[in-house]
Amino acid sequence: MITYKEFNLKEYRNALGKFGTGVAIVSTKTNDELPVGVTINSFNSVSLEPPIVLWSLNKQSPSLKAFDDTRKFVIHVLSKDQVDLSKIFSSRIEEKFANVAYEFGKLGVPLIPGCSATFECTTWLRQEVGDHILFLGRVENFTSTEKEALLYYKGRYAKGTELEENLI
Ligand SMILES: Cc1cc2nc3c(=O)[nH]c(=O)nc-3n(C[C@H](O)[C@H](O)[C@H](O)COP(=O)(O)O)c2cc1C
User: Fold this and answer.
1) Residues 36/63, Cβ–Cβ less than 8 Å
2) Would you say the CB of residue 30 lies under 6 angstroms from ligand 1?
3) Does residue 46 register a pLDDT over 80?
4) What's the pLDDT tens digit per position in 120-158?
5) What integer best gives the mean pLDDT of the chain?
């Protein structure tokens, strides 16, 4: 693997970890209709009109082929009581959905119930960027609940969502 010599990789990752994010699971299915999912925090909104979101996946991921084949995915924004799900989908176990309830959403992609929000997407752009594949998705359907989101900060899960009043 080529490392970028001017950066100390550990320090660089620590610096990136200062940017707090939510946690999401992105799901899709294989050509044989098997559910596939990966924990991510690279999710972000890009455009409102049209509604476009982005996320990125490591090029080495065994799940990449399913995302490329199906060209549809669901972003599940996890709620604060879904740490266990995040751990399952960030592990290398083969059948991550073995003990996870799901149904098929409007696009025919596995949808996990009980999340803070979901975004059903069709792949709008797939771009190789360094060691990751960047996916941009057009949001076709979404759901939003009052469940508080799970957060990720400095490499750790966080559940505090105390909101400041009147900051903006
Ligand atoms: C909070 C968190 C965020 C993550 N974000 C990403 C991400 O944005 N992209 C990515 O490729 N991997 C990310 N990972 C790592 C993947 O979840 C992990 O490598 C997982 O094994 C991928 O599934 P796979 O084995 O099917 O590739 C993240 C892990 C955690 C715990």
Assistant:
1) yes
2) no
3) yes
4) 999 999 999 999 999 999 999 999 999 999 999 999 999
5) 94
Domains of the chain: 21-155 (2.30.110.10)
Going by CA atoms, what residue is nearest to atom 4 of ligand 1?
Answer: 40
Got the DSSP string for 33-94?
--EEEEEES--EEEETTTTEEEEEEETT-TTHHHHHHH-EEEEEEPBTT-HHHHHHHTS--S
| Mutation test residue for ligand 1: of 16, 21, 38, 157, the one with most atoms within 8 Å of CB | 38
Task: Spell out a b/e string for 144-163, using b for 16 or more CB atoms within 10 Å of the CB, else e.
Answer: eeebebbbbeeeeeeeeeee
CA of 57 to the centre of ligand 1 (A): 7
Q: In a mutational test of the pocket of ligand 1, which residue from 28, 34, 40, 157 has the highest number of ligand atoms less than 8 Å from its CB? A: 40
